[in-house]
Structure formats: structure tokens, C-alpha cells
Amino acid sequence: MAATISTKQLYRNPLWSDLTIKYGDEAIPGHKIVLGQRSNETKTIKFDDDADSVDALVAMIRYMYTFEYITHNHPRRHDWRFYLELADVAVKYGLPELKRRVISELSRREFSKPDTMTDILLAMPAYCEDDEEKSLEKAGQAFKRQHILSLLQVPTYVESLADEQRSLHMMQLAAALAELRSWIEDSWGSPTAKWGLSVAQFDIILRKAQTWTGGEVVGVRK
To answer: Highest taxon of the source (predicted)?
Structure first.
């Protein structure tokens, strides 16, 4: 029986290598059978490390061979910027499945702190500009819908909003307040249980809503 070898075993392996992959200061063995049309009629693939993150390029190449892009001990595993950089190169080099997997990582709990979410949202427009699916943009919109009450606690986020965006958020906030009124009518329950906020945090949001709307808002403690 003929021996078989997986593409995962070929990663950084000179066995059957028929080209060289270059990025940063590194040169590693590559395989046309794995890299496909990117490797046609060439003996060297040079990735644009002047424009792209080297960490993201390494992760992308790993993914092309192993279908995994990060290890458990990767130094940037908990760095949200790394995932934006990797989504960017995935779009640039035509790997839509990698792009979708990476963007989904941004929904991890560790990135859901209001300040961190604000940093991610403000950075997003600089990445994946050529993505026809607008996956990153859609993820950002979903992010805002899911975490709008928490985001409205962050001055940097509020200050970043254009008038139209602020109006949109006010509509979302109005919907949340309508739900709040119904909730208060049923029983004086816990904001923490309903939205993951403390009573004090919830009062802050309500006061902001009162200021922006110029009217009284149900539930604000005097």
C-alpha cells in the first residue's frame, strides 16, 4: 500500500518542496500542490510584509497547510489587533473561510469589555476594505446591536458617533427603554440578570438617555 502524507505534515517540511515562501526575514519550503494558483509558474512566493503583518502572514500560511491558524501558546492569541490583521490578509489573498473564522473570534467573551469593544469598532474601518462580502462591517454592526447599552457607557465611543449614527443608537436605546418600561411594570427585577449590568451602570445609561432626549426617562433614580 502506498504511503500517504497530509498537507499538515508538509508545513515547513522540505519533503516534495518545489518552491520557496518568503515573508519578513524568513524563507520556508513551499508546495505548489498546497498553494495552488498562487504558485503557478514561479519558484518563489514573496508576501508583502511591508504592507501586511508578518504575524498574520505566518498564521495564514499555517492555515493553508493545517487549517489551523494559531497555537495555544501564540503570543498574540489574546490580541484583538492580530485577528483584524489576519482577516485583512485573508481578504487580500483570497481565503474567505479563514476570514469568516477569524472574524467570529472577535465575538469571544474576552473581547466584550466596553473599552475593548470600542477600540475594536474604531479600528475596524482600516481593515478588509476590499472585502465584497463586507463581513467585518457586518460583524461590527452586530457587535453594536448586541452591546449597545455597554458601549454607550464609553465616552470615546459616544464621541466617535456622527449625528446619523447617534440618531440610530437613540432609536435602539428607545427600543430598549420600551422593553424596560414593560419589565418595570411586571416587577422590579434585576438589570444585571436582564442585560448583564449593575443597577449603577444601568442608571448611568438612563441618565444619558434623558440628557440626549431632553425628557424624562422611566426608571432613573433621583
So the answer is: Eukaryota
- pLDDT per residue as tens digits for the range 32-64: 888 875 555 667 888 877 788 999 999 999 999
Q: Are 35 and 64 in contact (CB under 8 A)?
A: yes
Number of helices (H), then strands (E), in the chain: 11, 3
CA angle 174, 161, 217 (to 5 degrees): 25
Cα Dmax for the chain = 81
Provide DSSP, 64-92.
HHHS----TT-TTTT-HHHHHHHHHHHHH
pTM over 0.85: no
Question: Which 3 state secondary structure label does DSSP give 45?
Answer: strand
C-beta separation of 183 from 194 below 8 A: yes
Amino acid present at 1 = M
Can you say how many angstroms the Cα of residue 150 is from the centroid of all Cα atoms in its chain? Answer: 17
Which long-range contacts (C-beta less than 8 Å, at least 24 apart) are formed by 116-121? Answer: 116/80, 117/143, 117/147, 117/150, 117/151, 117/154, 117/157, 118/151, 118/154, 118/156, 118/157, 118/160, 119/80, 120/80, 120/84, 121/151, 121/157
**pLDDT tens digits for range 139-173:** 999 988 888 878 878 889 888 888 777 777 777 67
Residue type, 80: W
Q: What is the rounded distance in angstroms from the CA atom of residue 64 to the CA atom of residue 78?
A: 22
pLDDT for 69 equals: 94
